[in-house]
Amino acid sequence: MKRLLKGGRVVDPASKLDGAYDVLIDGDRIARVGRDLPPEGAAVMEVPRGFVVVPGLIDMHVHLREPGQEHKETIATGARSAVAGGFTAVACMPNTSPVNDGASITELILKKAAEANLARVYPIGAVSRGSQGELLADIAELHKAGCCAISDDGRPVATALLMRRALEYASMFDMPVIDHCEDPSLKSDGVAHEGFVASTLGLRGLPAAAETIIVQRDITLAGLTGGHFHVAHMSVRGALAAVREGKRHGFPVTCEVAPHHFVLTDRQLEHPVQYDTNCKMNPPLREQADVEAMIEGLVDGSIDVIATDHAPHAADEKRQEFDRAPFGIVGLETCVPLVLDRLVHTGKISLARAVELLSVNPARIIRRAGGTLAEGSVADITVLAPDQSVTIVASALASKSKNTPFDGWTLKGAAAATIVGGRTVYTNPGVSGAGVFA
Ligand SMILES: [Zn+2]
Predict the structure, then answer these.
(1) Residues 6 or more apart from 417 whose CB is under 8 A from it?
(2) Cα(328) to centroid of ligand 1, in Å?
(3) Is 153 designated active site?
(4) By three-state DSSP, how is residue 133 classified?
(5) How many angstroms does the Cα of residue 1 sit away from the middle of ligand 1?
(6) Is 415 helix (H, G, I), strand (E, B) or coil?
(7) Residues 21-61 pLDDT 10s
(8) Tens digit of pLDDT for each residue in 338-385?
(9) Where are the alpha helices (DSSP H) in 73-187?
């Protein structure tokens, strides 16, 4: 079956395209991109004025909670949340219960994702067995079963030696090692960014140095081994400085930042709601200088990826005193509006740079298809409505969990439609004109 997206603005930085083009889809592939393509029997979708056609967005850091914590999210509800947020693919962290440290869990995830048949789901395997930080997991087996990367996310790779071995083994399979960079001894039982706000509120601190130290350790080891180290959810300026230094040396290091770390500061813990557990995440909301550094890194190219760290938790789990509530917020359905509103409409980055951060670079880092609309590539496409105003309504999220600090925010920019393998899997009912893609 052929479909023709006619008359939209196409932004495909991998092909250096930004302009009015038609996109012809044949089955699950992009057949042609060009001007005034003849329909040749294709079903024609007239792209509404102002919409932008981009390569499918990829969120390389999500928690889908299945197996083990299906009351928070399942692979099916997570995949539905992904496509509702404009993501055609997600990579899911292994800190499920049991941990994804072997082929059987990886295969279960892939089977559930195939049944859901919405976003592509790329499992990330554990670095160590049970993510216990002792014995390496069977990385060859994880790779063979379909994992795109390894990580002990939720906690750091426990020791420098384990990280060294992980980088060595993973590089044999051309996989990155994604590390949750946080020194456990400095982290202790902290719950909020160590600084003025946490002191004022009487919350135990998580120092920025806990992140920077592990990023520095891992960059040193990437240099030693030549293995690809990817920094998960970077949040502090010291870590960014270390990444820049590593890149300057030509070390294989990449990094991601989550929207809440370039939109919110720890001031959010004071206002508008004091001790809002929907502002409790790990890494925590940092101070203004860190937020500014993250934006600078997004602008100047030293940050590679925007990833959401989508971390669903049930309402009753979050409805506890701040110290006891679990870390994390949902992110899949708020990312596109935040990026468009806060980065693109403010003129900080171009739409092409946003596509690099949300599609081109994640595809390259996890070595998966996508990130381009070039002829012959997979027909994973996101249609954006950058001028559409949206109000985030937590209760209306497709995710099973509603833990977001952005409830009630009005932002400019939305995902209008999500196309995976040539098939429309989502059209946004809140965007007029999105129905043409159904
Ligand atoms: Zn993490």
Answers:
(1) 382, 383, 424, 426, 427, 428, 434, 437
(2) 9
(3) no
(4) coil
(5) 41
(6) strand
(7) 999 999 999 999 999 999 989 999 999 999 999 999 999 99
(8) 999 999 999 999 999 999 999 999 999 999 999 999 999 999 999 999
(9) 75-84, 103-116, 139-145, 160-172, 184-187
